[in-house]
Prior knowledge:
The complex is a heterodimer. Chain A is mainly α. Chain A has helices at 4-35, 40-53, 60-82, 90-107, 112-137, 141-158, 176-194, 196-206, 208-213, 218-242, 259-269, 274-291, 303-324. Chain A has one domain (60-297). In chain B, 32% of the residues lie in helices and 24% in strands. Chain B has a six-stranded mixed sheet, sandwiched between helices. Chain B has a five-stranded parallel sheet with strand order 6-7-8-3-9, sandwiched between helices. In chain B, strand 18, helix 13 and strand 19 (409-414) form a beta-alpha-beta unit. The A-B interface holds A 82, 194-199, 202-203, 205-207, 209-210, 212-215, 217, 327-329 and B 47-50, 66-67, 265, 267, 286-288, 291, 297, 299, 303-305, 309-312, 316, 320-321, 323-324, 329, 332-334, 336.
Amino acid sequence: xxxxxxxxxxxxxxxxxxxxxxxxxxxxxxxxxxxxxxxxxxxxxxxxxxxxxxxxxxxxxxxxxxxxxxxxxxxxxxxxxxxxxxxxxxxxxxxxxxxxxxxxxxxxxxxxxxxxxxxxxxxxxxxxxxxxxxxxxxxxxxxxxxxxxxxxxxxxxxxxxxxxxxxxxxxxxxxxxxxxxxxxxxxxxxxxxxxxxxxxxxxxxxxxxxxxxxxxxxxxxxxxxxxxxxxxxxxxxxxxxxxxxxxxxxxxxxxxxxxxxxxxxxxxxxxxxxxxxxxxxxxxxxxxxxxxxxxxxxxxxxxxxxxxxxxxxxxxxxxxxxxxxxxxx
Amino acid sequence: xxxxxxxxxxxxxxxxxxxxxxxxxxxxxxxxxxxxxxxxxxxxxxxxxxxxxxxxxxxxxxxxxxxxxxxxxxxxxxxxxxxxxxxxxxxxxxxxxxxxxxxxxxxxxxxxxxxxxxxxxxxxxxxxxxxxxxxxxxxxxxxxxxxxxxxxxxxxxxxxxxxxxxxxxxxxxxxxxxxxxxxxxxxxxxxxxxxxxxxxxxxxxxxxxxxxxxxxxxxxxxxxxxxxxxxxxxxxxxxxxxxxxxxxxxxxxxxxxxxxxxxxxxxxxxxxxxxxxxxxxxxxxxxxxxxxxxxxxxxxxxxxxxxxxxxxxxxxxxxxxxxxxxxxxxxxxxxxxxxxxxxxxxxxxxxxxxxxxxxxxxxxxxxxxxxxxxxxxxxxxxxxxxxxxxxxxxxxxxxxxxxxxxxxxxxxxxxxxxxxxxxxxxxxxxxxxxxxxxxxxxxxxxxxxxxxxxxxxxxxxxxxxxx
Lengths: 329, 467
């Protein structure tokens, strides 16, 4: 129990378990409302079982490939987390990244790696906005990232009449995608753990006072961290588009469900640790894919998102209970 | 049935002993204990923490409040130097919000003024609590406790918020409250404060008030020169720190010690003034540049700069001041092995076993060792002994004196007048961002220092406008 890694794994499993338990209770209530009575067999056969096993339907390779964009997004959120910052702009970065990849790929005919690079660049530039606001005006990054996410999604919607959404050309990225995610996860982990800049970031995560007295410029460090977080978020959107996972211009629902929530849930499950966040994204995607296979006549398709939200809530509650948010009696 | 209003048994005292404390209704009792024990007892009595070894009995019934609200419901009010007042609200606003008292501003003020008149103590009723001095906040909390009709008042370490004179005045008022049936328990680490009560129990050995030994050396040249520092709450602060001297800057919480320390380290941007280190202007130097120039800093224990830190390893915690040096990094990559060895050597030198690094005393010792390893000209340290036992405090003072004997300049910021007089070679008092006096500790008393720390005197003159 003294091993930190073992404890964090136990915590993640506890969050998952509690979230599923609460989700099961929600499913029972949903079934009761739909069917007029509680049918445990229906809940199990049509709800819980497909939820817990549906993610495996296309095989492990497909699961890993589809989880890669969520892993990148979770990585970006975790990176900011290491610096004590809450990156809530995942949905906006994802949307911009996907739109950029679509424009470069379908309209300009660029190869996939160029599209991915442009997505990452767009994400970096957009991530720099809340970074600048935090560095210069001391605007809390939670507010800055969330607001810029909404601006991005609304702006894309405003231009929707000018952008005809095109599906990507067929590219077999299902195998390279997880490799890209793993490579970036390792890079981020190495950078955070073993470099001077990574130590600066972790000192900022300790507290602004710690960073300041250690000679770290909190504003500059926050700016570059949010830029990098944006890079990963933009790349996530671009990769998902190239994988064929984005069928339309990302809309407002993204701000509350879908990749934005998945990335946050994975980062929360991992306690903000980059490598673990990439792994947790696979678990989150598994649940999300499973949610797509439940009986739509009885359970709403958003059931999966609701359960992920409950898991996120459990993670936050457990973190608070450990004394991170308040005083223990 | 018991004669006692409050009984505390199995109090964990030093040397694995157990202490006992009993207070009758209407008694003004004190307990002389180490700061950590005072904090522990007040936290458990106030419902802030549970699970300690001590057992509490209130009028013969077991008393283990689950929360501050539960403690208040039972009539036990705990007042600590940190306080629990909301910074944006004035005392009058707090009074208006008291359960059972919900009333308008005028009525609240009348009640407060009547109580202040009855117990002969003063409280600032109009300014937001965040703008009040530590002493005003402390008195304000006592006023709220009295207005709540709390039967038992537990006052934790009032000496951290009030000067000796203010304590005496407060004691006179509290004695009156005891005559009306209230029980007052004073938890303090100062014998002079404990002696104000009707009786006191010594739960810890009485603190040693003899100044620590130091070499008789001539004070050297000016190392750090500050001229007219203004900004961040500081008002035209000027002083010099010399080689071979401990300059103690004594000020109550909220007097500007933190701001001054931050100004000297570069963490606070000033609007005016000049700073020189060994004759070199360092006003525009960043924190890192000042560290390289020879400014070492140990901020207060509340500033998350101790050892070890949560997010980083022990090696990284120990190398905080030097991790950019070639010894600990190469081409931007940390040399973790070297950092680990460095931390191990430091802990071995300090004789700290694995697992013991987290105690308050060891954290301070490690932080001090970290900051004073390597080349530095001036060390700034804030509240280094806050919350420590007397023995641990002496250990820290001896380390500062060793640095002073090695002809470094040490600037010691403290809220404790006793510490300033025992550890300092020269004492400055700070009040509301201004230097109010300069003293020779050999001929100055805590009481006199207290007058200057509260601003009642400045530059040798009484300031009646502060009444």
